[in-house]
Design goal:
The chain is mainly alpha-helical and about 210 residues long. The chain contains 8 helices and 4 strands; from the N terminus they run ααβααβααααββ. Helix 2 packs parallel to helix 4, helix 4 packs across helix 5 and helix 7 packs across helix 8.
Length: about 210
């Protein structure tokens, strides 16, 4: 869900869903969010709070993930014990998909390191997609810029974000638009539309 909206607004929407489900029993709603939005039980709603590490043990997921991502690794037991969250496991598998290697204690699988490697991987993908030099590190720069923007702004409009990237990274508008769209498609950004009231007031795309 869009976590930029208030808790009160979303509690109201969730309760609206419960009313619909009671009227039409075949319709069910499942709403998920991080703990920062719903911190307490919602009255009249079946609410579950998951542990930070998730509701499934890494050991139960490990073999299936390794097989799905076609990773051949020795010392898999050591690796299994080194990955302590589902996110770490997912990142590790995405980074090493299709690889064969020997795992030892010198291989850092801490979340910050895995995230850094994942961002580098996305940068490589974007350089091919946007036909740019990977050394520009547009994805890494964009993530850092977004961190600063959302620290001081609740939301930001599409045109403003494109203009910011254009100026900060010294690129043309087409490249800036491509970068914003790529971040949105990848799920790094979350976009919603505010529809204009008339033909004279166009739609606004907001992140």
């Amino acid at each position: 869900i869009d976590e930029s909206s208030t808790t009160e607004k979303w509690e109201e929407r969730v309760k609206e869903g419960c009313v619909i489900s009671k009227k039409y029993s075949q319709i069910k709603f499942c709403v998920t969010s991080r703990p920062l939005l719903f911190k307490e039980q919602i009255e009249g709603v079946d609410t579950k709070f998951l542990n930070v590490a998730g509701d499934v043990k890494i050991a139960d997921l490990f073999d299936r993930y390794i097989e799905h991502f076609n990773i051949q690794v020795t010392n898999s037991l050591l690796l299994k014990n080194s990955l302590n969250t589902p996110l770490s496991l997912k990142l590790f598998c995405e980074i090493n998909q299709g690889k064969t290697f020997e795992f030892d204690e010198t291989y850092d699988v801490s979340l910050p390191v895995l995230l850094s490697k994942k961002i580098s991987l996305i940068d490589e993908e974007f350089s091919k997609y946007g036909k740019t030099d990977v050394k520009n590190q547009y994805i890494l720069k964009a993530i850092k810029e977004l961190t600063e923007l959302f620290f001081t702004n609740h939301t930001i409009e599409y045109e403003d974000l494109v203009e910011t990237f254009k100026i900060k990274f010294n690129i043309d508008k087409a490249q800036a638009s491509l970068l914003v769209d790529y971040l949105n498609k990848y799920g790094i950004l979350n976009c919603y539309c505010e529809h204009g009231d008339s033909v004279f007031v166009g739609n606004k795309y907001i992140y």
